[in-house]
Every structure is written in structure tokens, then in C-alpha cells.
Amino acid sequence: MPNPLHSIAWDDVRLVHAVAEARSLPAAAARLGVNHSTVFRRLRQLEAMLGLALFERHRSGYVPTAAGEAMVALATRVDADITGVTRRLAGLAPVPEGEVRIATSDSLLAELLLPMLARFRQAHPAIRLDIVTGNMALNLSRRDADIALRATSAPPDTLVGRRLARLAWALYGPLDEADPPPLARLLEEARWLSLSDALGHLAPARFLRGQVPEARIVGRFDSVQALTLATRVGMGIAHLPCFAGDASPMLRRLLPPEPGFATDLWLLTHPDLRHAPRIRILLDYLAEEIAGMRGLIEGGSA
Predict the structure, then answer these.
(1) pTM score
(2) Model pLDDT for residues 53-86, shown as the tens digit of each residue
(3) If 261 and its partner were Cys, which of 66, 175, 203, 252 is the partner (CB 3.0–4.6 Å)?
(4) HSE of 152 in the Cβ direction (CA atoms, 13 Å)?
């Protein structure tokens, strides 16, 4: 008699994995791009072929049995293998063409990267750019992005890259003729803008929590770019990266850069991709461009 395990197809494994992750048949169907009844029918057919129940129905949804967990583990291993092969094949691309996905923050994109990327595209029209912005680090090991430009003091050990500069922060406010008051008065009298809890781990946000009365904080923002824009229109004063604050003719430094707020600026990629022509040429280009702006990034000019 034929062994039913020999009849399992990759689509069967994907289906079990999708149900296990989604915990419901409709949600699994949405992930797979099929309808609910198809998932139900295929799951029942697979369980009948194996002679094993793959899921138990609980209040929380579909929970894998031991047999179901084994298939989920198989799906995870195969997915990791496919990702690894995809990375290695990408690394073998012979010419600098194709798509490069870049992950960075909205502030770095708007204030630093966009002009560089526009010039890069003019020089290398065969390379297409896919830009992903956000404050959460994407998983480059799973090809969520090919290159990341991040402000961090601890880049992941699984990535390779270059530390390009030390990203400085200073206190900025509206441009006027009066000399800025000392910090003690600013803490008590100024209207302050802050980063929200989503970025509460950053040093400027921690400083405000400990030094500025809650009543003096008139606005909170979940991105550095939004904080910068709010400062430029005069809502209040805020700590900003020097590359953003110094670039605005509407702002001036109220205090010198705070050394304790600085972080390293890293350009990162996955080891399997670093020699791919399209990745290599963009990494080298960005490193050279950012090196030319190191003085601004490190707070050397006001």
C-alpha cells in the first residue's frame, strides 16, 4: 500500500501553516488567496489521507495537534531554505540592475536620502528602488529589505555594514533675534514638543520625561519627521537631529548638541547580498554621499 506521506504536496504544507498562524479558516483563506470553503475541503481531504487530525477546534480557534505541529515545523524549515536560496541567487546577479529595497526612517529619508537617491537613479536607471519607512527594524535576513540605513548603537550581528557617522541631536526653536534663555528657564517656561511612547526609548524622549513638567509638553509625535515639521511651524521647541534642524532656515539651535543623545548611523545589508552588483553599487554610492555630509550629521555646523 502506498505511504500517504509520499503524497503530501507543498501546497498542503502551506495550507496547514496558514491555518496554524491565522487560527481560523477564513483568515487562512485570505492569506492563501482562496475562499473559505476551499481551505475547509482541502484540510479535511488531507486529514483523511493521513488518517490523522491536524487541528483541534478551541475557543481561541484552530490549534495544531502534534501531527499539525510537525507539518508547521516542516513549512518553517522549507520557507527558511527558500529564503536562503533566494538570497544567494540574488547575490549572484551579474550586472547592476533590478530592484533594491531600502529600509530607513521617515526623517532620514526626507532630510538626507531623497536627493541622493534621485541622483543615483539618474546615474543607474536600470536599478529600481523600493523604499520602506518606519521606526521598527525590518528583518533583512528574510528579505524584508536589501539595505537598511539606521540610527542605532547596536546593529544586528547577522548583518554587515559600515558605521558612517555619529548622529548628533540638539535643541531647536524658532528663528528670532533674541538670545535664547538658559536651559533652566526653557524647562520651566517654554512650550515643548516630544516624541511619543512609540519612540520613548530614545534619549531625547527620556530626557523630557525626567526634566520637563508634563504641563509644558504641548504635543507628542510618533516620528522624528513629524516632530521636525511641528517645530518648524512654531508649535514649540524640541530636540532634533542636527541634520534636520540645521537644514531648516526657520530654526536655530538653542543649545549645543547633547553628547548623550548621539547615536551611530549604520548602512547595513545581509552577508549574502553584499557582493550583488546592484547592492554593492548602491552601498558604495550612499557611503560616499553620506561621508560628504558628515559634518552636518555630526552637528559640526549650525
Answers:
(1) 0.68
(2) 999 998 889 999 999 899 999 888 888 888 777 7
(3) 203
(4) 17
pLDDT digits (tens, 9 = 90+) for 6-38: 578 888 888 999 999 999 998 898 888 888 889
Q: Alpha carbon of 245 to those of 236, 248, 297, 301, 302: distances in Å?
A: 13, 6, 10, 11, 9
Q: Which residues contact 140 (CB under 8 A, 6 or more apart)?
A: 103, 146, 148, 156, 158, 159, 268, 269, 270
**Rounded distance between C-alpha atoms, residue 274 and residue 291, angstroms:** 19
Domains of the chain (ranges; CATH) run 4-90 (1.10.10.10), 96-167+263-294 (3.40.190.10), 169-261 (3.40.190.10)
Instruction: Spell out a b/e string for 22-37, using b for 16 or more CB atoms within 10 Å of the CB, else e.
Output: beebebbbebbeeeee
Q: Which three cell numbers stand for residue 219?
A: 504635543
Residue 208 C-alpha from the chain's centroid: 25
Other Cβ atoms less than 10 A from the Cβ of 210: the count is: 6
First to last CA, the chain: 80
Looking at the DSSP assignment, which residues form a beta bridge with residue 58?
61
* Cα–Cα distance measured from residue 91 to residue 25, given in angstroms and rounded to the nearest whole number: 37
Q: Which amino acid is at 40?
A: F
Q: Which residue type sits at 79?
A: D
What is the grid cell recorded at 169?
A: 541631536
